[in-house]
Amino acid sequence: xxxxxKLLLDLLPxxxxxxxxxxxxxxxxxxxxxxxxxxAEIREKDKAYQVTQRLVSYDDIDHIVERIPAFSGDNRxxxxxxxxRISAMxxxxxxxxxxxxxxxxxxxxxxxxxxxxxxxxxSILLMGPPGIGKTTKLREISRVLAExxxxxxxxxxxxxxxxxxxxxxxxIGNSRRMQVTRPDMQHAVMIEAVENHMPxxxxxxxxxxxxxxxxxxxxxxxxxxxxxxxxxxxIHNLIKNPTLSDLVGGIETATLSDEEAKRRGTQKTIxxxxxxxxxxxxxxxxxxxxxxxxxxxxxxxxxILRGGEAKPEIRTITEDGKVQIYKTSHENRExxxxxxxxxxxxxxxxxxxxxxxxNLEMAIQTLGVKCKIVNIPEEADIMLTTKAQLKxxxxxxxxxxxxxxPVYTIKSAGGEHLEKFLKYIFKIAxxxxxxxxAQLDKVVLAAIDRLxxxxxxxxxxxxxxxxxxxxxRLISAQGYRSESVGKEPNRRVKIYGKKDL
Length: 501
Hints:
single chain; 16 helices; 24 strands
């Protein structure tokens, strides 16, 4: 147990330490939750344990607050020269009534999957949901680039990258760190870093406002390599986000002439990229071992806006620690399920009823399927509506019966449900069949080998429904039992030994 971790444990009340010891998780804690009048909670990865010895009191909270630096404007504090983050919840009078401890660890080797991209000197944006490891990767990137002799400056708004206190954590190596007095001043400190300290690389965590997006563009246009993070799942999230779309070039409406619209086969009013993207490379973090990489953001955005499919590199880390890189190709995809749809992958005509067309068009572009939205039911091969609309509108069923057009329903008209529907109709998976099958087989069989050695049960990496279904079939064929556990987007397959059947 390192010294940083001991400093955190020293802050915690004895009853929490005792409970963690009983659960044998003292050295693996990720988060601790303490709220007045409730039982404390210890979190380890996806598991949570309640400390039921007694309820958290004001004295417990005050004892901790007295021993740490004052909370900043974003209600965050920490422990000097460590990466741990302590966040406060306050009542209406400003009294602290809850604390969230997030254990910070410097993970060396966490950038092996993108090390070659760092050497290109281009600006890189990392995307992913909270808790997936974006800040950890930024910290390691800072250290790696500084070791190469680069002048690296970190704009550290909440002291998450380089830790609390005036002396930065050793996890950033020789990088320099600029602290930010208030969260709403991050954009100003970004510009100050460029103007005053002559950096070759600037590192920024969580670009989230329009002013920060503009500051990022200013930095990139001055020839400084910018590496930053933003919340989101995919490149399509940025394209649709009016606040952050400038990071990928911004979106504007253009009107084509009749001849040009006819030549392109599109409407006269289309969406186009407004400017060159702030970031040259975009990385979608899927989990600790998998990411999608768009090495040419400008080209990828153009393809998506024209109704095509941007094909990212898929990078994974195998069990033996090697980086594997392969590309997706929609044209060569085959379903991972044996069941076939009655619809061939021709230009399927779809009539949406009470469905947002913009969301549907984005889902079609995201998956790259050959689906045409029609305006009247008579021209459609299939109809799509929500379950609620079908229940309260008998007209839909009459149309279906009169025109002999099948009707499909989804729970809601959100992008996630639309993509799930299109995947079902076209029976597509998220990976190239040849590469994906070989990789999935290798991972599953390696896990089964570990089961044979007595290591069980084993959980595979989170995956979508298509991949999980394939894994279940393969596991069953080997004579083992499996089940899906966890919640989306972290739902995964768990494998049990034969004697557990």
